[in-house]
Specification:
The complex is a heterodimer of chains A (113) and B (116). With 113 residues, chain A is mainly beta. Chain A has no helices and eleven strands. In chain A, strands 2, 4, 5, 9, 10 and 11 form a six-stranded mixed sheet that branches. In chain B, the strands form two sheets. In chain B, strands 2, 4, 5, 6, 9, 10 and 11 form a seven-stranded mixed sheet that branches. A four-stranded antiparallel sheet of chain B has the order 1-3-8-7, with no helix packed on it. Classes of the chains: A mainly beta (113), B mainly beta (116). At the A-B interface, strand 4, strand 5 and strand 9 of A face strand 4, strand 5, strand 9 and strand 10 of B.
Chain lengths: 113, 116
């Protein structure tokens, strides 16, 4: 069984706070790890595609790190803004012919103004 | 513009009726997926297809059927055998070639199905 776990399940922060969430995945047969942002009434959109151990990626105030040996990725948001409120999903792809995405349940972030 | 389109956005059906949800993409992606989301739960995979005329069951395929006759289209039929069909359904597509970084999934807007 391949499990992808995200924590915390939900998070409430004040505008300007920095925050981070965790995605845990199987450490064997790693191929890729994705982060998506899913805003209410919209489709999920990819934030990062991470493939190498030690990868660090950044998009504006959002960044992510990857540790494939221990099976986790962190997503950081610096100086949270109300528009950052969304559910953040991670998805794991296992090495092999089947590139099926295996999803975590997401972290729901609410940023209060 | 390239993208993935689901229709309709909202769908109401009577219990016992089959209903088909449409998903079309013009991204030239080989892989297409159907997911279901229920309140308080994450995305659960119903069916996926890596190539035309081939598809695989996901984690919750019972009560659903799909077809992949064309690369662009992956319709999902919710049959009367699905015990709890009311949910939000998301379709996605992704490339299967082009290297390790070319795996990003693109999503439709979703269809909210209500069975009464």
């Amino acid at each position: 069984i391949l499990n992808v776990e995200q924590s915390p399940q939900s998070l409430h922060v004040q505008e300007g706070d920095s925050t981070n969430f965790t995605c845990s995945f199987p450490s064997s047969n790693f191929y890729a790890l994705h982060w998506y942002r899913w805003e209410t009434a919209k489709s999920p959109e990819a934030l990062f595609v991470m493939t190498l151990n030690g990868d660090e990626k950044k998009k504006g105030r959002i960044s992510a790190t990857l540790n494939t040996k221990e099976g986790y990725s962190y997503l950081y948001i610096k100086g949270s803004q109300p528009e950052d409120s969304a559910t953040y999903l991670c998805a794991f792809i296992r090495a092999g012919n089947n590139r099926k995405l295996i999803w975590g349940l997401g972290t729901s972030l609410a940023v209060n103004p | 513009d390239g993208g993935i389109t689901q229709s309709p956005k909202y769908l109401f059906r009577k219990e016992g009726q089959n209903v088909t949800l449409s998903c079309e993409q013009n991204l030239n992606h080989d892989a297409m997926y159907w997911y279901r989301q229920d309140p308080g739960q994450g995305l659960r995979l119903i069916y996926y297809s890596q190539i035309v005329n081939d598809f695989q069951k996901g984690d919750i395929a019972e009560g659903y059927s799909v077809s992949r006759e064309k690369k662009e289209s992956f319709p999902l039929t919710v049959t009367s055998a699905q015990k709890n069909p009311t949910a939000f359904y998301l379709c996605a597509s992704s490339p299967t070639t082009g290297g390790i970084t070319n795996t990003e999934a693109f999503f439709g807007q979703g269809t909210r199905l209500t069975v009464v």
